[in-house]
Write a structure and sequence with these properties.
Radius of gyration: 18 Å
Number of strands: 11
Number of helices: 6
Strand content: 15-25%
Largest sheet: 5 strands, antiparallel
CATH class of the largest domain: Alpha Beta
Order of helices and strands: HHEEEHEEEEHEEEEHH
CATH superfamily of the largest domain: Phosphorylase Kinase, domain 1
Structural class: alpha+beta
Strand order of the largest sheet: 1-2-3-5-4
CATH architecture of the largest domain: 2-Layer Sandwich
Shape: globular
Number of domains: 2
Length: about 250
């Protein structure tokens, strides 16, 4: 199988964004990460890594192409970042994971936690990207978009029916809390994609409901979601959301 690191099928209107992101993306491709990507290539999970579709302090998400012409998302957590030093609060108190000493081990744990939380949320019927695989600092998952173009984040999307979007998100919060027994712990318009229905992303920090700060995180999630939709003209409070979740 040919190994290609291409920019094929890139939408013309995204050229500028892709160029800017490529200035950042080279930092994630250390030797260990490249070996993980080659492992997934050899396994046939994807045929080429196309270009970044989103980037943040701790990770970059790439669109990847499969042999059948469809797409998946490849999320690479960066080793060269200080962001993971602050994430102990989301790991301590979670009986599934033990906090690691080294930064590299913490990055691996963060990827493992994202994959585990995605699986639990998906099994509970929450609208999330389907997790496909993970290894070390890389998580492979379903690509959320249309014709190879990722859907915008909810914060950037034009919502024609905001109340309908809110109802879907609150139901997903309820399923996360009641059925998956998780709390997302970082829910906002920046961690939800404006698909129909909306899709909740970025699950690495999600905690079990038994976590000592789970209720605090749930309250913060409800507050953020209520504020987002209040700004879009929906009559909702965090108390309304919490009542429906519980």
């Amino acid at each position: 199988m040919a190994r290609r690191w291409s920019k094929k099928k890139r939408p013309a209107f995204e050229d500028k964004q892709v160029t800017e992101r490529n200035l950042i993306s080279h930092r994630v491709f250390d030797d260990k990460t490249l070996r993980v990507l080659v492992h997934f290539l050899d396994k046939g999970l994807f045929q080429s890594l196309d270009y970044p579709v989103s980037s943040g302090k701790e990770s970059i998400v790439f669109r990847a192409s499969k042999a059948d012409g469809s797409f998946i998302a490849v999320k690479i957590f960066k080793y060269e970042t200080s962001a993971f030093r602050k994430f102990a609060e989301y790991i301590q108190g979670d009986p599934r994971f033990a906090l690691k000493d080294t930064l590299r081990a913490r990055v691996h744990l963060w990827a493992q936690k994202e994959h585990a939380n995605l699986r639990a949320a998906k099994a509970a019927g929450v609208h999330v990207p389907t997790p496909l695989a993970f290894r070390e600092n890389v998580v492979v998952m379903e690509f959320i978009g249309e014709e190879g173009i990722a859907y915008p984040l909810l914060e950037q999307a034009a919502l024609s029916k905001p109340k309908k979007a809110l109802d879907s998100i609150v139901e997903d919060m309820r399923r996360t809390y009641v059925d998956a027994k998780l709390v997302h712990a970082d829910l906002s318009g920046f961690n939800i994609m404006g698909a129909q229905p909306p899709v909740v992303i970025d699950w690495a920090q999600a905690v079990l409901r038994v976590h000592p700060r789970a209720e605090e995180f749930l309250l913060r999630d409800a507050h953020n979601v209520a504020r987002f939709f209040q700004r879009r003209g929906v009559d909702v409070t965090e108390e309304d959301i919490l009542d429906k979740i519980r």
